[in-house]
Amino acid sequence: MSQIVVIGSCSMDLVVTSDKRPNAGETVLGESFKTVPGGKGANQAVASARLGADVYMIGRVGDDAYGQDILNNLHAQGVRTTYMKPVTDMESGTAHIILAEGDNSIVVVKGANEEVTPDYVKDALHSIDDISIVLIQQEIPEETVEAVCAICSEKEIPVILNPAPARKVKQEVLNQVAYMTPNEHEAALIFDGLTTEEALRQYPNKLLITEGKNGVRFFDGTQEVLVPGYPVKAVDTTGAGDTFNGALAVALTEGKSLYDALLFANLAASISVTKFGAQGGMPTREELERAK
Ligand code: RIB
User: Fold this and answer.
1) Cβ of 13 less than 6 Å from ligand 1
2) Which amino acid residue places its CA nearest to atom 9 of ligand 1?
3) CB 59 within 8 A of CB 116
4) Are 30 and 292 in contact (CB under 8 A)?
5) What is the domain-level CATH number for residue 33?
6) How far apart (Å, rounded) are the C-alpha atoms in residues 220 and 181?
7) Does the Cβ of 39 fall within 6 Å of ligand 1?
8) 3-state helix, strand, coil in the chain (%, to 5)
9) What's the confidence (pLDDT) of residue 102?
10) Is the pTM higher than 0.90?
11) What is the Cα Rg of the chain in Å?
């Protein structure tokens, strides 16, 4: 069976819910506090696994209690953890999340995710056979993302780069990846100086700009296409982008057309926001089929 390989961050999300987001220098009282597994890499791996794919996660955790919890969760979700080596004397990555006023604000402390180095990833990548697609994000060092894109381009393995959180991406990387999935803010930073329309036209069937519940926009070589989202009542939008990317990898691996793969990914993302936590609402394959 062909493998989806996710390379990226694995963190513990420390989530506070509050009516109000505090301003600088202000203290407010919150309603609840929960710790749940997160990190863009782990979220995308779990999203793909729930939809029935065979998934390897390549990443690092610390040698702390969070690290063990993160590994246990990946196991429980059916993600392969052969290449999830704990880092000695280091804390796991954490994301400090405030859910307030219908949206989230997040501070990420990378911790062991900094140790997802080019060498670490190269060894793992060369040991996995029959990779159908690689999914990567930007909560790990920039040089690792660049090394992965170069190796995969040489091996003709398609890469989906989810350029989140936002940072500039080298032209070489843009050329090497098969798909790129920024949201509007990330796209504005990466394609600074170009309008959305110009950027889309430069990267037909490759640049897929997500617009939240509105859907996803791309240029098909002839015209701009908006693949619509599905309206739902959102409880927590954390991890919606990750669900989208994980589902997109599954659909492309299964040979769906780009348009159908994006519809599938939009549906998965819309279901994911109906429950609390980055991974809490990610649908299983059955749940997604039922929602069609
Ligand atoms: O994309 C959502 C994720 O971003 C959260 O789970 C949190 O870990 C942050 O990194």
Assistant:
1) yes
2) 39
3) yes
4) no
5) 3.40.1190.20
6) 15
7) yes
8) 40, 25, 35
9) 87
10) yes
11) 18
Q: Is the CB of 248 under 6 A from ligand 1?
A: no
Query: Which of 12, 61, 99, 108 most suits a substitution to test ligand 1, by most atoms within 8 Å of the C-beta?
Result: 108
Residue closest by Cα to atom 2 of ligand 1: 239
Length of the chain: 292
Q: Name the DSSP class of 275.
A: S
Count CB atoms within 10 A of the CB of residue 233. Answer: 6
Q: Side chain identity at 100, as an amino acid letter?
A: A
CA end-to-end span of the chain:
26
pLDDT of residue 181: 98
Q: How far is CA 112 from CA 26, 116, 194, 215, 216, in A?
A: 31, 8, 36, 33, 32
Quote the number of domains for the chain: 1
139 CB under 6 A from ligand 1? yes
Distance 59 CA to ligand 1 centre (A): 15
CA 43 to centroid of ligand 1, rounded, Å: 8
Which atom of ligand 1 is closest in space to residue 97's alpha carbon? 7
Cα separation, 62 vs 130, whole angstroms: 29
Which residue from 168, 232, 224, 165 is spatially nearest to 199, judged by alpha carbons? 224
Query: For residue 35, what are its two tokens?
Result: 């710790």
Task: With cut-offs at 50, 70 and 90, classify the pLDDT of residue 1.
Answer: low
What's the CA-to-centroid distance between 80 and ligand 1, angstroms? 20
Paired tokens of 217: 């926009």
- CB of residue 273 inside a 6 A radius of ligand 1: no
Give me the domain span that covers residue 255: 3-291
User: How confident is the model over 67-98, as pLDDT tens digits?
Assistant: 999 999 999 999 999 999 999 999 999 999 99
- What residues are labeled active site? 242
Q: What is the dihedral of CA 211, 106, 122, 74, to 10 degrees?
A: -90
- How far does the centroid of ligand 1 lie from the alpha carbon of residue 94, in Å? 9
